[in-house]
## 1
Amino acid sequence: MKWLTLIGRILYGGFFFYNGLNHFLSLNALTGYAQSKGVPAPQLAVIVSGLLILIGGVLILLGWKVRLGAWLIVLFLVPVNFMMHAFWVETDPGARTREMISFMKNIALLGAALMVMLPTSWPLALEKPTGSSPS
């Protein structure tokens, strides 16, 4: 069972680490996309959001300050979901469908971030969470 938890942590943290890194590797393209969605200070928003998920992903990957990492991911997902994937304002059916899929994916990722915050033991982690086990 501990290997499943480790694999899940690697997949989840790795997803955000990769996408956070991509914010910097594709800064101009993502800035343009954010600008097209009406995001204020789009380049700064891409940099800050990239840092949130890059650091959050690394913390989860390492199993160190996992709750903090999950909170950073929550701080990324909530505003990004409503600003970037507002499917309810799309008039083109194809664009509406694409944005709805992205919105729902992010809702699932948000749910996973909340579950990651539960106290548990993290196999091969740098830090073991303190606190009691969930009931």
## 2
Amino acid sequence: MPVKVKICGITTDDALQAAIAAGADFIGLVFYPPSPRHVSPQRAAALARAARGRAGVVALTVNATDEELAVIRETVRPDYLQAHGDESPERVAAIRELMGCPVIRAFRLKGPEDLGQVAAFAPRIAFPLFDAWHPQDDADALPGGMGRRFDWSWLKDHSGDFMLAGGLTPENVAEAVRLTGAPMVDVSSGVEKARGVKDPERIARFIATAKNAAG
């Protein structure tokens, strides 16, 4: 099976069309104002309409309130909600109920022992997304999209569906898939020419490389 690919942090029509033309399975829309990839619900709704039926629409939030989630639900109607903050298993269950769609929970890994967190979430999520941990006291730090990777060998014995993120690029995604067996990969900064600005050529190369990586 070809690896499924998510291009996250889409903000423009050109980036969206580049991702879809290259065969992206998911596109990610970021609802987190500190991020350079943040989009308003209205802008996200237009992008989601253009993607509908061509790629899965993932709304990424960070410790969002019920009110913020309700706006996203009504305007964007995402196929998935990605919880990329500190949401507890109980909060994830409440988000799934409120949104009426599956939830992807992000886990920022400091070490292989952090994989143990997934079990408590497993009945409530579509699948986990594994990202790199980094200190949040850096003024420029974001929960994701920082271009940092973790030790992929931590995942060599992990079973079940998961999405791999964190520091992936067109140059290293084949190795990442080979080492982890990841059935899905997620990229944001690795396909940008400037922070928050997607590069269509890198998007196309990333997707082609990832989909050929599993042989």
## 3
Amino acid sequence: MANIEPTTLFFAAIFTNNILLTNFLGLCPFLSISKNVESAFGLGTAVVFVMACTTGLNHLLYYKILVPYDLVHFEYILFIIVIAAFVQLVEMIVERFFPPLYYVLGIFLPLITVNCAILGASLFMVIRDYTLVQSVIYGAGSGIGWLLAITAVGAIREKVQKANVVPKGLEGPGITLIITGILSLAFIAFSGMIQIQ
């Protein structure tokens, strides 16, 4: 994978291989927080920061410690510890400087630790044998793709809720999954442009 240009990898991670809309990773916080644009954007920004930083750090730890010392079987444990540490850092920053956002996100901010999209980005980095630069670029692109998807769905859900046009049985997760499916189909239009495997 060393021959993929960083800009190609970045845009592919955002659009054609969107970690949420093509791999369906990170759906739990996505469904819960995408009720309005403000909270969706706040959580998405935190995910971008955590995903970009942890993917790069996990790359270093994987190739400098786990592989040379034949400890690859500890990758899940190490990746989750790194992710948890960064989430704790983000939680302290948001609580200190953005208290309203901290209370809106509630329990979902610390739950970024178990957001499978963030762990998935680190695992894809290993599976695809990315370099350090590619890993950071891929992590940032995947985070921005996740942010783009959750913000778009948050905006659509706000509009739909204000219009009061959703049948009673589809309110909540039902309409969110339908919107996500349609948005996922829209992102398929980008699939012929750039592909990464």
